[in-house]
Predict the 3D structure of the following.
Amino acid sequence: MKILGLLFLVALAGFAQQPPGTAPRVEGRAINSLSGDPVKKATVLLQPRQAGRGTAYTADTDSDGRFVIEDVEPGVYTPTAERSGFMTQVQGAPGARPEPITVEPGQDLTAVTIRLVPLGVIAGRLLDEDGDPVRGAGVEAMVNGYVQGRKQLRVASQTQSNNHGDFRLYNLPPGTYYLRAAIRADRFQFISPLTVFSESKPHGGDAPTYYPSTTEPAGATQIVIAAGAQLKGIDIQMRRAKLYAVRGRQILDQAHRHVSLQIVPVDSEQSVGFSSGVRISSETFEFQNLLPGSYVIMAVRMDGEKRSFARESVQVVNGDVEGVNLAFAPGADVAGVVRIEGALPSGSPIAVSLQLETPSPFGQPNTTAKPDGSFELHDVAPEIYRVNVGPIQGSYLKSIRLGDREVNDERLDLTRGPVPQLVLTLATDVGQIEGKVQTAGGDPAVRVRVTCHSLRSDLSRSAFTDEKGSFRMTNVPPGEYKIFAWEDVPMGAPQDPEFRKPFEKQSVPLNMPPNGHETVELTSISVKPLEMR
Amino acid sequence: MKFITTLLTLAIASGQTPQTPPKKPGAVEVVVTNSITAEPIKKVVVVLQNGNTQSGYAGLTDLAGHFKFQNVQPGSYLVSATRDGFIFQPGGAFGHNFKPLKVDEEQRIKNFSLKLIPLAAVSGRVVDEDGDPIAGANVHAMQNTYAQGRRLLNPVDLANTNDLGEFQLINLQPGRYYFQASIPSRALNSPVRIRSPRPEETYPATFYPGALDAAQATATEVAPGADITSIDFRLRKMRSYRVRGKIVDAQGQAAASASLRIQMRGAAVNSGRASSMVRPDGSFDVRGLLPGSYVAIAQWMQAGKMNVARQSISISDQDVNGLLLTLAPALEISGSVQVEGPQSDNQHRLTVMLEPLEWMGQSADTMAESDGTFVLHNVIPALFEVDIYPFPGTYLKTIRLGDQEVTDARIDLTQPAGGSLKLVLGVDGGKLDGVVQDLNGDPAAGALITVAPRDELENRRDLFKQSMTGDKGDFHVQDLAPGDYKVFAWQRVDPNLLEVTEFRKPFESKAASVGIVANGHESVQLKIISAADVEKEKSKLP
């Protein structure tokens, strides 16, 4: 106790502004990054930069946007603030953390400024072809994003039109959006197991429609939202489209009493909308309200305790599709073993999972290996899966063998019948990369994203540079890589080889030996000029 | 977005192929109108369903609300009508949602009228104490429901406020609602300790117009087709408290992967639980709790075995610190169900259920083996009610936990060493016949009969019997446990209300009292209780 007090006095000696015996105070303001106005009622959060260590602090801003946090443990923190209608401004590549602050012992920080970017609003009305308001329909704001290295539209925000057809999407970060409206499915669902001899076939309906009034994503008008923009009068006139049905047979009997059916568009950008309805009976099924396009029907049936699966492709061109047959096949059993080269942190359970590239009613089978490394998966749908192990810090999936055959693409094909034992080898001879990144102007490149990509597989690693332009990347398996430093790259984009291609000249090659420790120097890449083209 | 699909699971009844008897078809013209405005409704899906053949006809009404079914096979049909923004309830609330129709050979039916009830919209704003809008608040429309004999406000619909604090609930069925605004707890996704200013404050969930307690909430009557725009909330911050502590296993090691929830005891609202992240060192910190009594339940699934810890917490005017939750294996309750007397070969296996009494949900259930033995796995130490559906010809006669006889079916598993659960089904149940007259003294067909146990068996929900009168107002109930009962005949009632003792009380003068002895056979005469009287008493309930 005495020693502690003594140290404290020594530390305080240089900083007279703080009375002895108190820990530092952090105070500052949250301001609107555009107007400079104070942002009141924001919740400020100081998070210790080292994840999972230390204490985090919160405080609310007052009417002047001011906050005060007393008694902060010295350390490095990332300050953020939360308030509906705003997001914390971050200088650096998307995904980077905000500029950290350093709290020194005995020294108050009194001018921490947290800049908040005002978010946008898109408001409008949904109308049908007659100009009547469409109530209770879903409206989605979509943005281009990257998932598993592929560019696709994803929903950034969604809402529902109200009683008057009005909708309002808010908290939209600055960016380029597409709007889509669709009637929800539950309105269309018939759930009685009924064979209907329909006399009037409604051959049209409000189709999923992109702003301003098209069913084709390619024809949709982009909406650019600047920081804090409030766009009103963004009305969507829903298109009446010819909608078709897909009908077929499935056999249920006393032994097979439950089935779940799902229809999925093959092209992810093509929409069935929420507007598809389904009607099934013991012998037949019918999906309704489908736009022309390519679909896959996926069905899971309970056969007692076991499941069986069916997958059937259908093309909807310009009429109803009749007579689709579902052929059910039983699930597969997969047995395997995880082998470890080297030593893993003891006690870490090893998770093994089989992943489909798209979400599926078939599920993502997963299990945990037993202490001896063996694992079994039962009742797995006959599909092609990617094999995942872990993640366990300090290890990587080095090889996959099926019996005596090496699998090179990490894919496990269960569509051709039973498979031999799966042998998964985890290795721990990972290396690390350290480096410095400069901008084209020769300055340290701060908070840019550094990625390295294997030349042999789609394995990649990612890190951010710090305030001095330095970075460290761990857990890198042996092999040949290309390394990039990105100033402004969209999240997930570097995982797309097509995206990387034009920038390959600006990358640096690296050969990582087992347990290696490599250093590189990089120049950061600005993506913007290319995107402008 | 890439994955907007339709998913439906259906249990299929034994389907039959439609048969077409060689009869000359008839024709049916339907007219669909708004039950309030009498205006025709277009785009209504009308289905004529033949109950015998599981086949039928579907059509869509035109601008005049008309649709004509040509060539309808003679037979009996149930007619339903579906349109967004409306409901079809010709039998009234809790009644059937179809209208019967009989079509004879070559019969032309005109103007078969279907009246749809328009749904209502309710909107308003949620603002803070300064009048600033609160974005992202939840507004629940809640209705009184009665479960396990208790009143419970159950959320039936939810809307979120936008950046202007505005919300709108559309498609509300007519009825009596309570509206509650709450701010979803924003879990600060931080594994580290969070320090925040003292005193901490929280916006408590608030009933319209400003009550915190469900008992003080004001109900809003929502009429068919109503557009109520004035449900405005002004939320006020209140001093709130934290519960901090640690979850450890039996060896005292940190239980990092445990889950924790802190639930208000006996909450009148089917929500109101706080769950918390548990840090790698087993510690937790739940914020924003208002004064009250709570139950903390920690659970950890390890190698298929549930480990649980349960502790009562009372928060008055300070934080609760240092709460130690020590996990112990969840209970394995073994027991048996035996049929009294000569053993009959039962083909069916009984399901044995334990319903928690302190909160809703997470009941434990299992299916007994064919010899009647069962084991309930992973049961949380708590207060439960035992429930089963006895075999036809039997009733649940005795319940024993260890060597204690449990007359009210409620068992306390918070204390260790309860022993096994022995259930005995009696075969000496009594029978009851009766006739129900309507208000004019005529036989009342389709009346709902409730046979409710009295005195010490009053809380035994498994001894409740329900039946429906036939064409002559007659009914028959069997497998009644020996004891005293009140017998009620209802014109129309929410079945969940029937288990609420306070609801039944005012009607006891209209009920018949009957004592059932073992293997006895009694008969009663009853007057029907009108739907209007039911509504009157229902509105007096809290």
